[in-house]
């Protein structure tokens, strides 16, 4: 009887380890390069011209110089199958940010985002803007608070998670918009980010819009600190560099608590 009990406990523990391992694998599989849309998510960029024109437009900021149709071009995926979209709009040559950025036609509040990017050449520069306000930096070679994977100017760069030039990278993001009461800001925007499957920012508050009025919504309000309760689209920045994008999808959320953890 004693031996039977011992075998039963041992078997149970083995099964528990297998189950836990399977659970961990499932969680990890939900972030990183190649992650497919979650149930209820909508694809916004699959690398095709059709989807680019259907779901995106130029952001009509104060420095807009580009004209429709969008001049970002569809290219063959340099390392895999399918296609991607190159952010090197000719209007943004020389790093003229805000002149040819693209933004989703749909605006968002809280959401889960997956976006994949590939920097073709050293020094490649772009940016992913949450709500067309808060930039998550895409910049090869920079590991400062203005660098790769940083919540720009507000967090350290998780440069260690970057796959490097010529390789696909992925941001997996849960974002909770700022909260207001009768027009007054009561809670700052919050974000959690996985970079290539590694958690690099957890429940990080975002204080302001950086880069001035040419950067995004509210950038011209009180030095970027005058955040308003206006939803915004996902924006991708054109900086005159060969930075490619693909597999961008968004799942809208309604986060009751100030917790953006996965």
From TrEMBL:
Classification via InterPro entries: AL/BT2_dom (IPR010496)
Question: Which Pfam families does this entry report, sorted A to Z?
Answer: 3keto-disac_hyd
Picking any one GO molecular function of the record gives: hydrolase activity
Ranges of residues in domain 3-keto-alpha-glucoside-1,2-lyase/3-keto-2-hydroxy-glucal hydratase = 82-251
- Its protein name is DUF1080 domain-containing protein
Recite the lineage of the species: Bacteria, Pseudomonadati, Bacteroidota, Cytophagia, Cytophagales
């Amino acid at each position: 009887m004693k031996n039977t009990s011992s075998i039963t406990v041992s078997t149970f523990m083995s099964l528990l380890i297998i189950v836990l391992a399977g659970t961990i694998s499932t969680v990890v599989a939900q972030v990183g390069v190649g992650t497919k849309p979650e149930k209820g998510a909508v694809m916004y960029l699959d690398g095709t011209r059709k989807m680019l024109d259907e779901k995106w437009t130029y952001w009509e900021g104060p420095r807009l110089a580009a004209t429709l149709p969008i001049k970002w071009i569809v290219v063959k995926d340099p390392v895999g199958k399918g296609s991607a979209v190159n952010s090197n709009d000719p209007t943004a040559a020389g790093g003229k940010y805000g002149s040819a950025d693209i933004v989703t036609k749909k605006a968002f509040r809280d959401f889960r985002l997956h976006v994949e990017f590939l920097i073709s050449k050293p020094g490649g520069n772009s940016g992913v803007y949450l709500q067309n306000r808060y930039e998550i930096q895409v910049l090869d070679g920079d590991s400062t608070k203005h660098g790769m994977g940083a919540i720009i100017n507000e967090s350290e760069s998780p440069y260690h998670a970057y796959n490097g030039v010529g390789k696909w990278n992925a941001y997996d993001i849960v974002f909770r918009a700022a909260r207001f009461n009768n027009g007054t800001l009561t809670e700052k925007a919050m974000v959690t980010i996985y970079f290539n499957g590694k958690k690099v920012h957890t429940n990080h508050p975002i204080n302001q819009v950086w880069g001035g009025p040419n950067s995004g919504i509210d950038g011209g309000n009180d030095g970027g600190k005058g955040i308003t309760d206006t939803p915004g689209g996902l924006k991708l920045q054109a900086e005159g560099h060969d930075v490619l994008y693909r597999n961008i999808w968004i799942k809208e959320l309604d986060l009751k608590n100030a917790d953006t953890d996965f």
